[in-house]
Design goal:
The complex is a heterodimer of chains A (275) and B (142). Chain A has 275 residues and is mostly beta strands. Helices cover 3% and strands 61% of the residues of chain A. Chain A is built from one helix and 13 strands. Chain A is elongated. Chain B is an all-beta fold and 142 residues long. Chain B has one domain. Helix content of chain B is 0%, strand content 62%. Chain B starts with 9 loop residues before the first strand and ends with a strand. Classes of the chains: A mainly beta (275), B mainly beta (142). At the A-B interface, strand 3 and strand 5 of A face strand 5 and strand 6 of B. Strand 3 of chain A pairs antiparallel with strand 6 of chain B, so a sheet runs across the interface.
Chain lengths: 275, 142
């Protein structure tokens, strides 16, 4: 979009994507040490800034799996959260909180809970900008049959055509932005360890971009992209050759120019009701 | 902190490394009670580079020895602010926090949980405020 002939881009996008998958049985966290690691950052700087944050939590209900196979009743989950922010000049104010709790969660609780608000302002003529990227991914898999060494890896499952009573689920919420002014708020939450087998897996991702009212500029300027994804495949205990259910959802949005309002949110919850 | 004398001077302000293997003694004879095997590493460091003026505050607390059931804990906080009479601290601040946890489950021989985190941040220029903190505690239940 040519900034010399500003075309006012007004995007009011409130999109709530709710995906329901039916089968994520999470590993329970019983008998682990249940580490809790809250961290906070507040900063206000005129100059350059770079930050890199990464968190990974992998949990297995049975103490490890081998070569893409799961034991009888085994569940595994993996969560990866990444956040990178960099500026090469200008004014940046940032508030960042990341709560990590590897212990088992009830409904409404999360193992990863990140909230970030960044406010940035620069003179676009001097070439400085803020670049940020943020992503939360979760992979859950389980075998709820009495069969040992059920297939976990979806690629292996496809090759040998064996889908005995297991599930593979993948969820992702991500965003990336290049801004010269404005405020970006993101929230990323995931629950990958449950107190018992009735606690559903959940991933929430939310992003909002607004003008920085204190700067006097009535819009946020830059480019922002969001990406949401959910895939789920399940096999029935009695059918060993075909999947019983597959689901797929992707959503990718890009905005560029003078952004007055941009908001997107994504929630995926497994609607689990084991008997 | 002096203005000119501090140029090109690198401070290693604080570094901590906690590495503890948590072993809990379970006196019950019953095999229904297990203590998980665990390995836990945490570190936090802050460097100030080319600081011309600043006011710094840091706090570090560690609980590494306790009775059974008392969780290990680390608390770390670093704050950089301008000195009185100035608008901003001038210079570069680099913080690096990281941790890695491995756990076992019951009598299984493979790792049941991997928990890895890292936060690396650098700010450079006129620093109006810079504060980072983390707490690391275990919530073990046997």
């Amino acid at each position: 979009m040519n900034t010399k002939y500003p075309v006012f881009l007004c995007i009011c996008l409130l999109l709530l994507l709710i995906g329901v998958s039916s089968a994520d049985i999470l590993p329970n966290g019983t008998n682990t040490t249940n580490r809790q690691i809250p961290s906070e950052t507040y900063l206000e700087v005129i100059g350059s800034m770079s930050s890199h944050q990464q968190y990974q939590l992998e949990t297995s209900s049975h103490g490890g799996h081998e070569g893409g196979f799961l034991y009888d009743g085994e569940r595994v989950s993996s969560v990866v959260y990444k956040n990178d922010v960099a500026t090469n000049g200008g004014y940046l104010a940032q508030s960042k909180g990341l709560k990590i709790d590897e212990g088992p969660q009830q409904k409404g609780g999360f193992n990863v809970d990140s909230k970030i608000v960044s406010t940035y302002l620069t003179d676009p003529e001097v070439g400085s900008k803020m670049t940020s990227s943020d992503s939360l991914e979760m992979f859950n898999s389980g075998n709820y049959t009495q069969v040992n060494r059920s297939v976990r890896n979806p690629l292996v499952a496809e090759i040998i055509g064996d889908y005995v009573g297991g599930f593979n689920s993948y969820y992702k919420g991500a965003s990336a932005a290049d801004m010269t002014s404005g405020q970006i708020a993101t929230m990323a939450r995931a629950r990958s360890v449950g107190t018992d087998n009735t606690i559903p897996a959940e991933l929430r991702y939310l992003i909002g971009i607004h003008p920085d009212m204190s700067s006097g500029i009535p819009y946020a300027a830059g480019t922002a992209t969001t990406e949401f994804a959910m895939t789920n495949e399940e096999g029935a205990p009695t059918n060993t050759t075909n999947l019983s259910s597959t689901k797929k959802l992707t959503d990718k949005t890009t905005v560029d120019g003078q952004i007055f309002t941009f908001g997107k949110s994504f929630t995926v919850t497994s609607g689990l009701s084991p008997t | 902190m002096g203005v000119n004398a501090m140029m090109y001077l690198c401070y290693l302000i604080s570094a901590l490394l906690l590495s503890c293997s948590i072993v809990f003694l379970v006196s019950a004879d019953s095999w229904s009670v297990y203590s998980p095997a665990g390995e836990d590493q945490v570190s936090g460091s802050t460097r100030l580079v080319n600081m011309q003026s600043c006011a710094m505050e840091s706090k570090l607390k560690i609980r590494a020895v306790g009775e059974d059931g008392i969780p290990a804990g680390v608390e770390y906080l670093i704050s950089i602010a301008p000195i009185n009479g100035t608008d901003a601290a001038i210079g570069t601040v680099i913080t690096d926090f990281r941790g890695k946890i491995l756990e076992g489950r019951k009598a299984q021989v493979n790792t049941s949980e991997i928990n890895q985190w890292r936060d690396h941040t650098m700010v450079s220029g006129a620093i109006v405020n810079y504060m980072k903190s983390f707490t690391h505690t275990s919530g073990i239940t046997l």
